[in-house]
Structure formats: C-alpha cells, structure tokens
Amino acid sequence: MASTQSTIRIAPTGPGHPKRVKSELMRQRLRAAGWFLVPMLVALAIVAGWPLLRTIYFSFTNASLTNLYGAELIGFKNYLNWTVLKSGRIVWSGLLADPVWWNAVWNTVRFSVLSVTLETILGTIVALVLNAEFKGRGIVRAAILIPWAIPTIVSARMWGWMLNDQFGIINDVLMTFGLIDHKIAWTASADTAMIAVLIVDVWKTTPFMALLILAGLQMIPRDIYEAAAIDGVHPVKTFWKVTLPLVRPALMVAVIFRLLDAMRIFDLIYVLTPNSSQTKTISVLARENLIDFDKFAYGSAQSTMLFLIIALMTILYIWLGKVRFDGGDR
Amino acid sequence: MSAGLKLKQVKKAYGSVQVLHGIDLDIKSGEFVVFVGPSGCGKSTLLRLIAGLEDITEGTLEIGDTVVNTLPPSKRGIAMVFQSYALYPHMTVYENMAFGLKLAKAAPGEQDRRVREAAEMLQITPYLDRLPKQLSGGQRQRVAIGRAIVRDPKVFLFDEPLSNLDAALRVATRLEIAKLHERMSDTTMIYVTHDQVEAMTLADRIVVLNYGVVEQVGTPMELYHRPDNLFVARFIGSPAMNIVSATITGTGAPATVQPETGSPVTINAEVAASYLDAKATFGVRPEDLTPTDGPGLFTGTVSIVEKLGEVTLVYLDTGLAEPITVKIDGDVEIAKGETLTVTAPTERLHLFDENGVAFPRVSLSRAAE
C-alpha cells in the first residue's frame, strides 16, 4: 500500500524549480481539468483537426472536385515530380518547381513582414497615446476600434472605391494638393497593388494591435514611472529602458497573433486586388487551384505547405523570442 | 549635503475638491519628521507635493532656501522610497540602484563605489545580481532604500514604506530606518505613515494631519502629554484616550468640571471665567487610570476583560455613553461582572472646550518651561 502514502513537499519560495511529487489531491484536480477540456478538444478536432487531416491526405492524391472520393494516392508528386525526357533532359514539376507558387510565397512573406512591422510601430504609438490621461479617452478608445469591427469584405470594398483610379477620393485629394500629376490605378497597377493592400490592412488591424499593447501598458505600475521621474530619467529614455522591456511580453504575443493572421491573408486581397500577381498570396493561390482550376489535390498541397510554413515560423518566433504566454518575464 | 524645508500656505485641489487647506511647516535640516493621520487626511498628497510628483495648487515650497514649486522631481535633491517599492522589475538589484546615476552619466567608478557602499550599508551585497522578483518583501524594501541612498539626497522621502511587510519584519525594518537616520544624520527625512507606533518611535517631530489640515506639530512626547485638541488626543496613544462630556462648574486654575454622572473632577487646566457652565470634555488615558479602594474618578462594572499578557485591558460600564477603558498590570486578577473604582492623578487629565481645543495646562506646561 505504498501508493497511498503520497509525498507533499512545500515549494520553497524563491528561485529554482524543485521537483514536486503529485499528491492525490493534485491528481484529482488534473482529472477535473481534463474533463473540462474535453468539449473544447472535441470541437477543435471536428472543425480544425479533421479538415487539416483531410487536406493533408488530399495533397498526396490526384483528387479533383469532380472526383473527390475516387482519388488515388500518388505520393509526393504534387509537391515535387520529375519526368525524364527521351533526350535525357529531366523536367521538374510539382509545387516546389512552380514559379507561381514561389511568387505567392514571396508575396505572403513580404506582406506579413511589412504589415506586422507597420502595425506594431503604429499600434505602439496609438497605445501610448491611449494610455495617457486626457478628456474623452473612453470615447476615443472605443472609436479607434471601429476599423477592426468592420467586416473585411466591407472595408476592402470601401477602400476599393476610395482607391479607384477614375472616381476615387484618394486620387482626387492627391491631385488637388498637387502631389501627383496623373491619377493612379492603385489596386490595378503592378507598382502600387501591394502598397494599396498594405494601407488597408494597416488601417484595419492597427487598432487590434493597439488594444493588445494597451493592455500590456496598463499592467505596468504607475509608481515605476514616478521612481523614474525621481531618478531624473528623460521620458524618451524611460520609454526605451522601462516601458518597452516591460511591455515586451504583451508585444511579442500581439505580434505572433498578427503574424499568424497575416500569413494566411485571403479576404482582403481577394476582394481588393483579384488576379494581381503582385499581391497573390498562398491562400489566394490555393483557393484558385482548389476551386477555379479544378486542381483540388494541388491546392491541398499548397494549403498543407502554408500550414507547415506558418507552423515553422511560429515555432521559430516563440523559440527565438523566448515568448511566454503565462504573463511574461516579470 | 543637507537642507531644511519650508512650506508656506501650501494648498492642493483636484478640480473643486480641496485636499490640503494651507499647510505651514518648517522642517529643520537633518530632522526626522513623520506625517501621520487617518486614511484620506492628505499626508501622502503632501509628500507627493514635496517630491514634485504632483503640482502645488497654491503656496510655496522651499527646499534649502530655494523655491522648488516648478522644479522637476530630479532637480529637487530628493529621493523617495515607495510603499510598493517601485523597483524596475526587469533590472537586477545593482542595475536598479545604478540606473539614475548611469543616466546622469556619473563616472563608472563612482557609480560602482556608491552602489556598493549603499549595498554594504543595507546588507544586500549578496543579492546585487538578483532580480527583484527573486527577493523577499523585506529585501526589496532595502533595495528601494538603497536606490534612494545612492542618489545622495538632501531630503529622504518615505511613503508608508513598511505597510507591505509582515509584523515581525516591520519592527526589524523600523529599527533599520532608525539606524539609517543615525548614520545619515545630516539628511532630512520625511516619513508618511498611518501607524502611530512608527510615528512615535522614529520621529524627531510628528505632524498630525486630518482632512488636509495640520492638527498639531510636536515631538512624540509633546503630542502624547499635551495634545492640542481632541483629535490628536484620541489619535495618539493606544488604546485611545477615554473622553467624557462634562460641564464646567469652576473656572480659574485648576478648573472643576461636572461629568454627566458621578462627582465633580478637578483638572490642572487654566479656564477663563467666561467658560462657566459651558459644555466641555475631559480625557484620561487608559494607562493613567489605576484601581483604588477609596473614592475615584470612575466606578463601574467590568463588562469586557482583554488579557494581552503584559497588560490587561478592562472595559468599565459606568453609566456614561461609552465604556471607560482601563489598562492595568497583566498579573492583576479581575473578572467580568466585578465592580471596580479607578482614579488618575489630576495632572494626567486633559480638558477640551466645546470645539475640542485643549485648555492651557497649568502644572505640566510650567514644568516644561
């Protein structure tokens, strides 16, 4: 009956992580926690796990929309395949040899890095402003969330009109002030399509970023700033040496949320700049193959690759940035 | 490096709410002054005005003969220890203490010397490389004090520094602060607390504040023996002074009063003739009352007995509105329901007029002169 003698050690306060032997009470709590998690795990398995597994499965078949269930396994041919011609030349095919795919990867990465960087900087500035005390702060805090609350399709259409080359207000304003000498087809021109997408995305998601960072800022005790004032620290220095290190945990989590979102962007680009090779991201390309081109298996392979890329970037980010989700490194 | 402080009619208002109503204070260089009062009396606000963390609405504040009303905190030659310590959580103890010096571009050798000197003084040298979260409350408090020492301030400000510590640690840290004051005897120290024991033990002079007004300024013993008014009389001393309403029946010095019940009481106070038949209150501290067999000040039945070990608190039902508290030796056996008569020396009675202002004392004030 040795098992009934559970050992409980009281964790000493202070640094270090002593090994604790699980007591019966602890095991009971863990069991209860497990039961509470079951509904969520079941829901996740149905709406995320199963589709993911199906997509991965389809990526190894020759499935098409008309023949989903009669698909045959063809191994890695959707990813990489080669044929040896009679002349002895080897022709590569499949995802990894497809320039259209690599263009989409480049667009996705470019868009993600640029948009998240801009949103982080602007979001921090907005959060710092909203964290200061001024009259009507509550209203401003609510108002700033409006872009985030508008459905992407609506804001994409709205901006589409504003950026329109014939009737758009943005061209009109820029012409009136003499900043441009001819109207620009923002969404259609190859030079400006990505800029247009970035403008709209930054406009839309900066509030989200600001809100997450604001939450982090409000965790910083006021008296630390008072101590800094007594120490005679210049406000700019205070920001770099005190605020930023302390808000870093919240900032890192906000960035990872946005990064995940940005890497799989679809709706904004699909509505604002359809069929522009300058902005076509992996998600847009995958949908095109899945539905428009009836290359269901090929589109599945692209989706699977996107999943792997996102997973890899997330793991790298968490590992390199030492992100902690349990309240940061205080 | 030392300076006194002069406050002239310092007022503070938040919008239409007046928090401090014209504070006049003269704090000598090297003095240890404690601001004490109940919550919301404005003592912390006054400290923050001195620190420069809040603006003075009206009046002038001088530190060492310079008006500093509009100077930023860092230019006032002050250092402050916060109630919550306010350490930078992402910096080690060493970095916390050196931060101000580093940004003031002090020579690295000088920085290091001052930090190590302060650390040595406070016995926190072994923790210099730790983060605040790896320290106990008492250690954090010492780091906060160390950070203030490193600034080499003219005026040291403490904002309830002990209130986040447990009882035993509070006593130990209180002693350390007293020692610190001894060692830095030419540094002026201002200390805010709501704990009268801290105030009594640490202060050279105590400033009692109530509703944004200074009720009395004086040495701990002055406040204890000669409170200027009822508020100070009840605030200083534990348990609080017994207060009894009475009518003045004999003026002059000493005066005679008639409580609601019982026989007339003679008090060593000087009362002008115009006060005859006026309402008044007299007070006597629980520790000044002693049981007696003869006629006494109060007679009543014991309603509650609280044994604290070295003393016993006895609550007497005498027919007055409030029970009379008596502090007697812990060895005296006494039980609930017994009848007890207590008395006090005439010079230990305090007499206040209808507005709670103390009448001048005869024997004690003469003895003090």
Summarize the structure in words.
The complex is a heterodimer of chains A (330) and B (369). With 330 residues, chain A is mainly alpha-helical. Helix content of chain A is 62%, strand content 2%. Chain A has a domain at 98-321: MetI-like (MetI-like fold, Orthogonal Bundle). Chain A has helices at 24-58, 99-131, 137-143, 146-149, 152-162, 169-176, 193-218, 222-230, 235-263, 267-272, 282-292, 296-321, and strands at 81-84, 90-93. A two-stranded antiparallel sheet of chain A has the order 1-2. In chain A, a hairpin with a 5-residue loop joins β1 (81-84) and β2 (90-93). In chain A, α2 (99-131) crosses α7, α7 crosses α9 (235-263) and α9 (235-263) runs antiparallel to α12. Chain A is globular, with a radius of gyration of 26 Å. The model of chain A is unreliable at 1-16 (pLDDT under 50). Chain B is 25% helix and 32% strand. Chain B has a 6-stranded mixed sheet, with helices on both faces. In chain B, a hairpin with a 2-residue loop joins β9 (205-210) and β10. In chain B, α3 (108-122) packs across α4. The two termini of chain B are 34 Å apart. The A-B interface holds A 13-15, 221, 223-224, 226-234, 237, 241-242, 245-246, 329-330 and B 51-53, 72-75, 78-80, 82-84, 86-90, 99-100, 103-104, 130, 133-134, 136, 147, 151. Chain B: It is a peripheral membrane protein. Chain B: Belongs to the ABC transporter superfamily. Chain B: One of its GO terms (molecular function) is ATP hydrolysis activity.
Provide the descriptors you would attach to this structure in a database record:
heterodimer; A: 330 residues; mainly alpha; 12 helices; globular; disordered N terminus; B: 369 residues; Rossmann fold; OB fold (Dihydrolipoamide Acetyltransferase, E2P); 2 domains; 6-stranded mixed sheet; 9 helices; 32% strand; disordered C terminus; ABC_transporter-like_CS (chain B)
Strand arrangement, major sheet of chain A: 1-2
Give the oligomeric state: heterodimer
User: How helical, in percent, are the residues of chain A?
Assistant: 55-70%
Distance between termini of chain B?
34 Å
What string, H for helix and E for strand, traces the elements of chain A in order?
A: HEEHHHHHHHHHHH
Q: Low-confidence parts of chain B, pLDDT < 50 over ≥5 residues?
A: 364-369
Rounded average pLDDT of chain A? 86
Largest sheet of chain B: 6 strands, mixed
Apparent shape of chain B = elongated
What portion of residues of chain B is helical?
10-25%
Name the pair of protein chains with the most residues at their interface, and give those residue counts: A-B, 22 and 28 residues
* Sheet with most strands of chain A: 2 strands, antiparallel
CATH overall fold name of the domain at 98-321 in chain A = MetI-like fold
Number of helices of chain A: 12
Looking at the overall shape, the CATH architecture of the domain at 98-321 in chain A is: Orthogonal Bundle
Roughly how many Å is the radius of gyration of chain B? 24 Å
InterPro entries (chain B): AAA+_ATPase, ABC_transporter-like_ATP-bd, ABC_transporter-like_CS, ABC_transpr_MalK-like, ABC_transpr_MalK/UgpC-like, Mo/tungstate-bd_C_term_dom, NA-bd_OB-fold, P-loop_NTPase
Subcellular location (chain B): Cell inner membrane
Membrane topology (chain B): Peripheral membrane protein
Pfam family, one (chain B): TOBE_2
